[in-house]
Each structure stands twice: as structure tokens, then as C-alpha cells.
Amino acid sequence: MYLDGRIPMIELSGVEKRFATPSGEVAALRGVDLRIGSGEIFGIIGKSGAGKSTLVRCINLLERPSAGRVNVAGRELTTLGSGALLEARREIGMVFQHFNLLASRTAYRNVALPLELAGWRPRRIAERVLEVLEFVDLLEQRDRYPAQLSGGQKQRVGIARALAARPSVLLCDEATSALDPQTTASILALLKRINQAIGLTILVITHEMGVVASLCDRVAVIEDGLVVEQGPVAELFAQPRSATTRDFVTALEGMGSVTRTLRVAR
Ligand SMILES: Nc1ncnc2c1ncn2[C@@H]1O[C@H](COP(=O)(O)OP(=O)(O)OP(=O)(O)O)[C@@H](O)[C@H]1O
Ligand SMILES: [Mg+2]
Questions:
Q1: In a domain, 54, yes or no
Q2: I need a labelling partner for 73 at 20 to 30 A (CA). Which of 40, 97, 147, 166 fits?
Q3: Residue 266 has what pLDDT?
Q4: Backbone angles phi, psi at 204, to 5 degrees
Q5: Whose CA is nearest to atom 1 of ligand 1?
């Protein structure tokens, strides 16, 4: 496995997820093995319904896998009881497509929320919130409500909130899918800066090859609940093996943006 000598930060072994539905059982994940190294930016790409969101939800155990093991930051999450799981989840920051900010709280108070829930002391909360808001360049907007922020600003609040409790891992599920191309580029650049500044492991779930091309070290392609191919991004682009990967690469080349995005963000 290509880990570049890094310690695994996320390890999935044989992860399966089945949902019971009125029309029968849906197998959303059918045995996923993944090892993501500490400090990597790892992409998971797949078409709609491939199982991407189910996979992220199984990594933080918002969904309990039907089978298999999930290990994050050296802890076997699948064996933990609910109290220990709550604590282990603090190692995992989540960034969402639709930001999931509380409309009734300012930017500052949205970022403070996870720290309040974790029982931090008020003075430490204030220090940390200002520190992360400065990092994402939102100090001036700290007293605005989500309705008074642009999409990109809202996502930067979402990222600041995810970073507040100093997680070991950041999970981004379609974090740029609701944003225009220019704002997308600025959010991808921010994620890259976070990775470089603090060596945070970042898992990026997307259906956009441009995101993978400009941001990720390695990528896994998921199709119908299975990883059909994975490797360093440049290798996958040069020699796509699965039909899904070929479709993604062709679509991106069609837009003429592979080399452009690669150049912008690297
Ligand atoms: N709670 C659920 N109950 C039943 N089926 C589900 C549930 N959640 C997901 N599924 C099914 O599992 C499969 C994978 O869904 P998932 O949301 O993980 O896909 P995705 O790759 O994230 O798609 P998209 O790109 O559209 O977000 C789909 O067939 C979906 O209908
Ligand atoms: Mg999804």
C-alpha cells in the first residue's frame, strides 16, 4: 500500500453497510478497505449513489457499519461504547456541503459551539475561536449571522468550526459543491494551507475530478459500494483503469481544466 512511509490515520477494513428499506435491502458499502496516512489529503470520488456519504458517515460512526472495522487516530471506533465514541469523535472535524451553521448564532458563536459542548472554559474558548477565525481570515465578520455571509464565508465558518477542537482528521463531504468555481478555488486553497500549516489529515469526498486534481495526494474511486481503483492522483490521471475513472477524467479534460487546476493549486 502506498502510504509514503506515513502512519495510518484512518484505516477501514472490510467495511459494509446495508440499509433495510420497504423494497428490500440496499447494500451501500460492500467491503471497503482504505488506509489513509497521517498528513495526507486523500480524495474519494464516485458518481451519485456510489456510497460516498455513507462512507464518511461510517468513518465518524454516525452510521454504524454492518460489518468491518473503522480505526481513526489509533482508536478502533467500532468497538467503543457511546461515551467513549463521543470523545473519540472530537478527533474528527466535519465540513458539510450546505455548511450546517446555526442561523441564530453569529460566526463567532458557531465556531464556539463545539468547544462549549466539549466543556472548555470560557477564556480558552475565546482565545481559540479568535485564533481559528483569524486563520480562515474571518475576524472582521465574526459578529455576522450566517444570513449576512457569502457562501464562501459561510464555508470558512464551517471549516473554522471543524478545526476549533484541534481534530486529527478533517472529513469534507462535497464541501465545495454548492459554491461557484472561484469560491471553490479559494476554499480548496484554504484546505491546502491548513494541511501544510498543521499537517492535518484531510479526507475529501467529491463527485468533481477538478477538486481531486487540484487538492489531493491520493484518490480512491468508489463505484456501487466498492473501491474499484486507488492510487496517487497523477497515476490515476495518466492511466485510468475503471470505467468510472475514465468517465471522470474525460469529463474534466472536456472542460480543459485538468492542467489549469493542477497548476493553480500546487
Ligand atoms: N438511510 C438510508 N436508507 C436507505 N438507503 C440509503 C440510506 N442512505 C443511503 N442509502 C442508499 O445507499 C446508496 C449510497 O448512498 P450515498 O448517499 O452514500 O451516495 P453518494 O455517493 O453520497 O451520492 P451523492 O453523490 O448523490 O451524494 C444509495 O443507493 C442510497 O440510496
Ligand atoms: Mg453524498
A1: yes
A2: 97
A3: 45
A4: -115, 115
A5: 19
- Is residue 127 a part of any domain in this protein? yes
HSE-CB at 112 with a 13 A cutoff on CA atoms is: 16
- Over the stretch 19-44, which tens digit does the pLDDT of each residue have? 999 999 999 999 999 999 999 999 99
The CATH number given to whatever domain includes residue 239 is 3.40.50.300
Taking CB atoms and a 6 Å cutoff, what residues make up the pocket around ligand 1? 19, 21, 26, 28, 46, 48-54, 207
The CA-based dihedral angle spanning residues 142, 143, 148, 149, taken in that order and rounded to the nearest 10 degrees: 10
DSSP 88-116: HGGGEEEE-TT----TTS-HHHHHHHHHH
pLDDT value for 40: 96
Nine cell digits for residue 167: 481534530
> Count of domains in the chain?
1
Whether the pTM exceeds 0.85: the reply is yes
